[in-house]
Write a structure and sequence with these properties.
4-stranded mixed β-sheet; membrane; palmitate; 9-stranded mixed β-sheet; Ger(X)C family spore germination protein; alpha/beta; 13 strands; single chain; GMP Synthetase, Chain A, domain 3
Length: about 400
């Protein structure tokens, strides 16, 4: 009896499990590594697809067959929506567009200003083949297709170059950070609704960026570089943050991993570098005179990176002075950034979310006036504590010759 039941189960499996009914041959797929979206001239949009050339990318494993070919091919298709564009792309390429490997979306600066991101992100979020973990960046001072077409010398796939640049500059500098489509969608639906997105620009001779001779030189004719932070208000590009202000905003959002500060010692400007190796920022809401207020606490540790003055780094008094000046320097930078975004009435610091989580009943009363009335006059107290972790192998720089 048991043997009969087993035989029936095996026969049922034969008929029910028919194998790869939805298989796709690799030779029939065009692997899209990046997607660029610009404003169209005669249509609403113009999308550029960055398609990987498998032979060129793996040429080193195939006896150098792809050495004379670019690692990518780009296709630009106009249309009034991305679904239409994807369908019409079939007339330009002999393979099915495959988005599962797409890890970058580049949006045109003008499109982000005029229309915003909501419609574009809605389409991408609905597509089951598109990953919402893909990085999104803004093309600053160039078209999205210019960045998509540009070849890069170190990383064969340009999309990987942009992603890696964001990854390492976030770790080392703190002025940029990776933002995914999912992150932007969450921020747009949050209480503050002011996402910030890193931007990239194209430097050098832009016309040579898509050409192979540009990356065959030790000094490429054109380069893709990380640029400012784009600030969005009500889904549209509203402002830019650059340099120190960009870093301070990310610091207040606890997005900075490592960075540096230069301080003055012995009446010499920027004579010591405090190399921040770790930091932690906590933001808390409170009520002050029945009005919401914010307290920011920053704890950071760092090493003495370099010094141009002969200070005794084994002296506790000197270390205390370094820690105090580093704390004061960062506090001043953070205060300046808070004042700047308050003047522009853009809560990119997400203080509104902090107030909402701590005092939801209070938030219901002030939500509609937050951006114009409460946030610009918000009382923000900042406390910074710095600690010198290491001073390096030499504790007495005055012993160096020539100092």
């Amino acid at each position: 009896m048991k043997r009969s039941i087993k035989m029936l189960l095996i026969l049922a499996a034969v008929f029910l499990l028919q194998g790869c009914w939805d298989k796709r041959e690799l030779t029939d797929l065009a692997l899209i590594s990046a997607l660029g979206v610009d404003k169209g001239e005669n249509t609403k949009y113009e999308a550029t697809f960055q398609v990987v050339n498998p032979i060129s990318v793996t040429g080193g494993l195939q006896g150098g067959q792809g050495g004379d070919r670019p690692p990518i091919t780009t296709i630009t298709v106009p249309g009034n929506n991305l679904t239409e564009i994807s369908r019409h792309a079939s007339t330009s390429i002999s393979r099915e567009l495959y988005y599962s490997h797409t890890n970058l979306v580049v949006v045109d600066e003008d499109l982000a200003k005029d229309e915003g991101l909501v419609k574009i992100l809605d389409i991408l979020d609905r597509d089951t083949n598109f990953r919402t973990t893909s990085t999104i960046v803004i093309a600053h001072g160039a078209k999205a297709k210019d960045l998509i077409k540009a070849l890069t010398p170190v990383d064969k796939i340009p999309a990987n170059k942009i992603n890696k640049t964001l990854q390492f500059t976030e770790q080392q500098l703190g002025e940029h950070f990776k933002t995914s489509i999912q992150d932007v969608l969450k921020c747009i639906t949050s209480q503050s609704r002011y996402p910030v997105i890193s931007s990239f620009k194209l430097t050098g001779i832009k016309k040579k960026a898509p050409k192979m001779e540009s990356i065959q030189s030790t000094d490429p004719a054109a380069q893709i570089e990380a640029n400012d932070l784009a600030v969005f208000k009500e889904g549209k590009l509203a402002d830019w943050l650059e340099g120190q202000n960009a870093r301070s905003v990310l610091w207040l959002r606890n997005k900075v991993r490592q960075s540096y500060l230069t301080i003055d010692l012995m009446n010499k400007k920027d004579s010591l570098t405090f190399d921040v190796i770790r930091q932690n920022t906590k933001v808390k809401a409170k009520l002050k005179n029945n009005q919401p207020a914010i307290s920011v606490y920053v704890n950071m540790e760092g090493d003495v990176g370099e010094t141009t003055v002969p200070v005794l780094l084994d002296d506790p008094k000197v270390l205390n002075e370094i820690e105090k000046k580093a704390s004061d320097k960062l506090k001043k930078e953070l205060q300046d950034a808070v004042k700047l975004v308050q003047q522009r009435k853009t809560d990119v610091l997400q203080f509104g979310d902090v107030v909402y989580r701590r005092y939801p009943e209070v938030w219901k009363k002030i939500e509609h006036q937050w951006a114009d009335k409460y946030f610009p006059d918000l009382d923000v107290e900042i406390t910074v504590n710095a600690y010198v972790r290491r001073t390096g192998l030499r504790s007495n720089p005055g012993n160096l010759k020539g100092s």
